[in-house]
Amino acid sequence: MWCSDGAARRRLGGLLLLGLPLLLAACNLRPLYSGAAGARLDTELAAIAIETPKTRTGWLLREQLERDLRASGRREEPRYLLRVRLERRQRPLAIQLDDSTTRFDLTLAAFFTLLDRADGKPIYRSSVRRIASYNVVDAPFATLIAEQDAERRAAVEISRAIRTRLALFFADREP
Q1: Fold entry, domain 33-172
Q2: For the chain, what are the domain ranges?
Q3: How far apart are CA 133 and CA 6, in angstroms?
Q4: Whole-angstrom distance, CA of residue 39 vs CA of residue 36
């Protein structure tokens, strides 16, 4: 084989590593949070007011979005409104021979719209869906805590996905 010795393999690997940045540059791939664009992105994300349903899940999502969108600690005058609608479903996952369920999948879907507060018109719409599982145990309180933890995990993941989608939206948008 032409590349059987270690030195040739290292040279080939070095050439590939040197060519990788050129290949990525040709794809117009750029860091999302670097330089002036990153500062502008932080400003845009910090200028989003959040409206979620008045439920436990809505509160969890709102709190996480507040942390994720204002990760730099900045607070801006709201120029946008993020309106989120949630759908929550549970599906039995592990059903025993006696017809009892010992595990559930909790599916949380967020349908969100970003509105320009100046004119109230939607400028971006999307949806995110996450699944978190939890076990059903003999102690009802422990099952409730497990369900609430699954709900919290799904809300955290949805918040991060929403932040990423909004960041990509603002990065592609002209300043």
Answers
A1: Double Stranded RNA Binding Domain (3.30.160)
A2: 1-30, 33-172
A3: 47
A4: 5
